[in-house]
Amino acid sequence: MFLMSVSQALIIVAWLLNGDLKEKLKTALSNKIVLLLVVFFLWHLLGLLYTTDFHYGFKDVRVKLPLLLIPIIFSSMPVFSDKQFKTVALVFIASVLVSTLISMCIYVGIIPVEFHNVRDISIFISHIRLSLLICIAVYLSFWLLRKIKFSYGLLLVIIWFVFFLSLIESVTGLGILAIVLLIYAIKTFLKNKSVVSRGIIAGSVVMVVTILTFTIKSAWHDVTFFNDAELRNLAKHTANGAPYTHDTLNRESENGHPVWINICEPELRTAWNKRSKINYDDKNLNGDEIKLTIFRFLSSKGLTKDAHAVEQLSNTEINAIEHGVANANDLIDSNIHNRLRATLWELNRYRNGGNASGHSLTMRFEFWKTALQIIKQHPLTGVGTGDVPDAFVKIV
User: Fold this and answer.
1) Which pTM was predicted?
2) Does residue 156 fall inside a structural domain?
């Protein structure tokens, strides 16, 4: 964060020292995109006139200040030559590559940094922001393929970036990358006059779309399938004679096995506390109730939720549950397939009335719904720059 601030300050100083500020501002404000961003920033400034929380308001304006300065500066600076831009692009790609390599060293244990979730290996910035930078780096790599010598090394870099996005389970990054590559493919298709090349491009796009469609359809079936046969002839007692509880109305399942049947919490609590350092009534390392993770994990294996089932778990599986792994298949499937299944499970649970709390995608749906309610209540002026958090709390 410090170096980001320093670099922005250096750019601003260089822009000021270069002189001719009046002409620069005129050039910048003649750009419609820059003008739109300036108006967006000024809108936040005007919002301070009728806000009640000036502390948050000034903080928000400060955070958004680059939206005013950076577009004006870059749009009014001398345009890079082709050589300069290629140099900047290569440095950018190299910096993103180094960041991913450092993250990989953390993942394999070469750099001793503790992490609970694979996405935590991005130690410099959010894994989502890193995935977006990777998407830009991939596009720039394609752009450079025909513009520099030894460019085929960039193909290896592109493959590495795609692998890394899969490793950190970035559905956002892979989704945006797919869109970027689709745009690039269409652009290449339209420019290319060769019938053979066009056929290869079109065939590749159709093949990839088909594979993605079947993959998502298969994962959705795994998430939504519910084996009703297991609701018949439910056992009343565990092998130790303790009573089971069953919720046959709840349709939540893991690998088709109902989650809320064959539960004996007294046995689970005792058996789990003997095998794990995390208490049954505490949260797992992802911050969720660990008993719910236990329910889901045992269900995914087709096991009852009792002492005998916990005793069957390996130490690896106990450790996985502690880290928030809720499906046994996550230990054998690829990271991105696991993430896709988790995302679809999240959507299905939300669709059936589940709580969105703790799930990034469905929480966004709730934020959008709440934002729309606030907009309807204050359609013209909004609630003031500093009052946004309070407005969300009041709606909730």
Assistant:
1) 0.77
2) yes
